[in-house]
Amino acid sequence: MTTAAAGSPRTYQVRTYGCQMNVHDSERISGLLEQAGYVRAPQADDTPDVVVFNTCAVRENADNRLYGNLGHLRPVKDKHPDMQIAVGGCLAQKDRGEIVRKAPWVDVVFGTHNIGSLPVLLERARHNAAAEVEILESLDVFPSTLPTRRESTYAGWVSISVGCNNTCTFCIVPSLRGKEKDRRPGDILSEVRALVDEGVLEVTLLGQNVNSYGVEFGDRYAFGKLLRACGDIDGLERVRFTSPHPKDFTDDVIAAMAETPNVCHSLHMPLQSGSDDVLRAMRRSYRSERYLGIIEKVRAAMPDAAITTDIIVGFPGETEADFQRTLDVVREARFSSAFTFQYSKRPGTPAATMDGQLPKQVVQERYERLIATVEEITWAENKRLVGETVEVLVAVGEGRKDERTGRMSGRARDGRLVHFATEAPGGESLAGQIRPGDIVHTTITYAAPHHLNADGAPVAHRRTRAGDAAEAGRSPRTPGVLLGLPTLGAPPVAPAPAAGCATH
Ligand code: SF4
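# iron/sulfur cluster complex -> structure
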């Protein structure tokens, strides 16, 4: 008995909160459910047969938000008793059985280590007419071995590791996602090749700390080697990665970035604070000098590199002098963009109970000063590109104003957002011919702090297989390859996972 019409497949909807790791996990949840015979519910459908919440535990009020959302679904479920509600992700890993105690209309609770069990848990809950709660303490199967329904035709996430061995005091990842588990290089490269075979042009290698990749199988240069190996994959045009960690960053990675043509000259390296005292309190074991030293080497090897970062303002105990050090590093590093966060307590983290929590207005005021400094620099850095011709990978829906302005949008190789005009020199619009996933070369005419505009005619347009796939409405799917966890010292072949905290 289902809410779907008799004989038609059950429908599902996944609601995702949090970081890229969760977004990628949601692609796996969709892939798994579709393999089990479910079909995605239309967006406007407010009574899908299964609603999955893929939750995030980063914000202080994340649980209020979840219980609020579950509360909204209660009357819907009362009317449609066959609807099933499942809660997964970091908050589920943290709150476990508490979720069905607080919201007894929830059918399934699953954690970050057992995404693969979701279809079985839904089935069991339906059969037994009782809630199923299954949380594992550690990973039993690498999530990348699961079938995945990819959201983008031209860009794909590929996890290289899950979990984190660091103990930053503001972060919940180690307690919810566990110790770092590295995936075998051959598995990663197989997944990359499978994506490229489907037409994908760009991959982003994902890990909480990509620079410690290899720690499990005893090769501290494994990440640089992986980047170089990606350089040998025909048809792969862009390789990115996130996130590196200044503590583990080695020079061979800079050399691999500079010497591998398809690796993009963009680096997102979390700073978090420019003050060594705050870094110490955060338990981040590099100092600002080391951070700036890495940037200097990156710029020497790749003068066109765009460097972006994450910064937390108002960490417990942060003084005005500490904050000034952050501004100093921002000025010296000349970031092309920065994700700035006001410190907020994350329940379950050591920093949440530290002395010296700052009043909201102090944090707010510093935050505003930080944003002003960051924007001044990112704007100046962006202006340097006016007059340059850049390669843009055309995206879907990156520009809210595009429809009104007749522009399309995409990312340059260095990661910058570019809005470009689509009129050919004769005035004819190319908008119908340029598809998401195609490559356009265009000349920058205007710079803003957060984007670039190119208002002349595109210099060149290349139709790609990713563009063909977008036009045909096909999205890449990577089948599950069941290999289990990598063993120590062993390499060889097949696909990968994610972890999940917005800032590293
Ligand atoms: S912030 Fe990043 S490096 Fe630090 S513990 Fe969390 S996941 Fe690990």
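# post-check
The first strand starts at residue 11 and ends at 16.
The longest helix spans residues 360-383.
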